[in-house]
Amino acid sequence: MNTKKPILVTGVAGFIGFHIAKRLLEMGMTVIGIDNLNDYYDPMLKVARLGILQDYETFRFTHGDLADLVSLEQLFYEHEFDYVVHLAAQVGVRYPIEAPVSYSKSNLVGMTHILECCRHHNTKHLLFASSSSVYGTSNTMPLAETAPTDEPVSLYAATKKANEVMAYSYSKLYQLPITGMRFFTVYGPWNRPDMALFKFVEAIDAEQEVTLYNYGKMMRDFTYIDDVVDVISSLMVNRLNTDKVVPFELYNIGSNNPQTLFDFISVIENTMGEKAKLNLHPIQAGDVQDRWADVTKLKSNGHPLPKTSLQEGIQSFVDWYHSYTHDA
């Protein structure tokens, strides 16, 4: 990567933020990470991730909130980042039903402040996290980047759609190179506890019921974290086509290998050598039936495609889970 300046990773104590920061540090980059360490899930998991990153001499952590524009501007003045990987967000498709204001602050105000700082400080490339949830109830599978995204079924999805539109506007107005990344059900070691894999493994390990919505018939495009980091790294270093009027792109980041939740549970059972006690429910508000990615655009632009099998990925997570919970 052609930069001697630090790279900013927002949401660095989060699941994907931690993994991309670790990869960049392993590549010899200097990483400035920012995170507000909120309590949406156990902050001790975030602290544990940070502990690993802080073992690298070229890592610096800032405990801060992107809603604080003054502090964020100061960070940009100090480092003049060439590359920014914006992953900080309030996540979850059901939580906004309980706490909608937190999504506006984190996902809309925070994104606006990042865009402002990037355009004032001549950032060479901003990459930001969008989500497959922007596709809403679209049922044309697999989902290509050109599929409609005008009917989000959750507030979280609505904020991510808004992020894409905001980024497009800034890119067009200020010729700012921006790449949006629509993640599809990312999983692996250090996963969030509110995600399906963590919850399922935790329940099976404790011999408790596993709750499956839509009676386990939903299909998801489970995408292993190392494969996601490979794609992000490739997107960072492969600059956008400078001949384009608007240096803005959106990419699906998924495995294009959909699995039903029943199949997903079956692989977990085989990996753990234990049977799940299933508790079946109707689909929840904010969820959609099926969702998986068309990755033709990734492939045609020379980026790596996810390759880790579900069996390999779940084994890695289960190994990490037992290690983490044993040491906790």
TrEMBL record:
InterPro entries referenced in this protein's UniProt entry, alphabetically: Epimerase_deHydtase, NAD(P)-bd_dom_sf
Query: Key word NAD present in the record?
Result: yes
Q: What are the NAD-dependent epimerase/dehydratase domain coordinates in residue numbering?
A: 7-254
Highest taxon of source? Bacteria
Assigned keywords, A-Z:
NAD
Q: What single Pfam family name could you report for this chain, choosing any that match? A: Epimerase
Protein name stated in the entry? NAD-dependent epimerase/dehydratase family protein
Q: What is the lineage of its organism?
A: Bacteria, Pseudomonadati, Pseudomonadota, Gammaproteobacteria, Alteromonadales
